Automatic annotation (TrEMBL):
<feature type="region of interest" description="Disordered">
    <location>
        <begin position="265"/>
        <end position="284"/>
    </location>
</feature>
<dbReference type="Pfam" id="PF00753">
    <property type="entry name" value="Lactamase_B"/>
</dbReference>
<protein>
    <submittedName>
        <fullName>Glyoxylase, beta-lactamase superfamily II</fullName>
    </submittedName>
</protein>
<dbReference type="InterPro" id="IPR050855">
    <property type="entry name" value="NDM-1-like"/>
</dbReference>
<feature type="compositionally biased region" description="Pro residues">
    <location>
        <begin position="267"/>
        <end position="284"/>
    </location>
</feature>
<dbReference type="InterPro" id="IPR001279">
    <property type="entry name" value="Metallo-B-lactamas"/>
</dbReference>
<dbReference type="InterPro" id="IPR036866">
    <property type="entry name" value="RibonucZ/Hydroxyglut_hydro"/>
</dbReference>
<feature type="domain" description="Metallo-beta-lactamase">
    <location>
        <begin position="21"/>
        <end position="209"/>
    </location>
</feature>
Amino acid sequence: MSDRWIEVADKVWVRRMEELDQSLGLVIGEECCLVIDTGVSADAGYAFATAVRELTDLPWQVAYTHDHFDHWFGTAAFGESAVWAAGDGATYLSRGDEQRKRWAAKYRGQGREEEARRIARSRLVPPNCRVNGAVGLNLGGRTVVLRQVGPAHSDNDMVVEVPDAGVLFAGDLLEGGAPPSYGSAFPYEWPQAVEYLLSWKPPIVVPGHGDPADYWWARTQARDLAEVARLCREVAQGFVTKEEALAHSPFGAEAMTAALERCEALTPPPPEPAPPAPAAAQGPPPPVIVYDLFDYSIDMTR
Ligand SMILES: [Zn+2]
């Protein structure tokens, strides 16, 4: 498979990428277009920008769904433009630098030297427009909504809604073809965030990885995310064992392990046990008064 376009609604496009099975987005208005995520490296970004130029020559703006490297390392190809995100630029840069080293090493370890080099030499472009809550962006003839959500898949999730076309770009809050990624997620909060996103019943849902799908697919995944949260809670309470959770996870053992580890990391240590109250303050327990049944005489005539 090579990279290809799918038009999911009128002038709303999804670029299906071979690398990591990503789905990047493009929404075209009358005066401007919005690019949603930019790919794993500067090289991937240049190929994507070239593909965008096959469809439109309107000026572009860029939206990041979150700060994981595969969603924004391609932005250098888009030159000087507005870049919208829920996270702040400084955090993007510091995390980007760390991810660049880690992923380059990971690819190198897999013997994928060329991919490692592509990531290592990608120039990082942090967002310059911060989204707090929701922002309506008029592209000319159509308005898209950039909505901050979560924490869910990450601590800086943002989705893009195209209300006139009924399309939701969900970032990695939803994933097709592979289990959701729990590595830096908030397993307990994630299902609620997805429920909220689906409250307007978008007919077309584009996940961050995998094929575009519909509302009912997204709803099923929301249910499975809730089941993972429930299993995490029950393991924490000792109601089910870790082994049971892994065996019954809707996304398989690996995703469940990551979710459990994440819950453990996010749970604050238990508070220091309170010192026992002094014996005098406790006093003796209250006496138990036992009545004999025949002590009562109820006069029903009165
Ligand atoms: Zn991600």
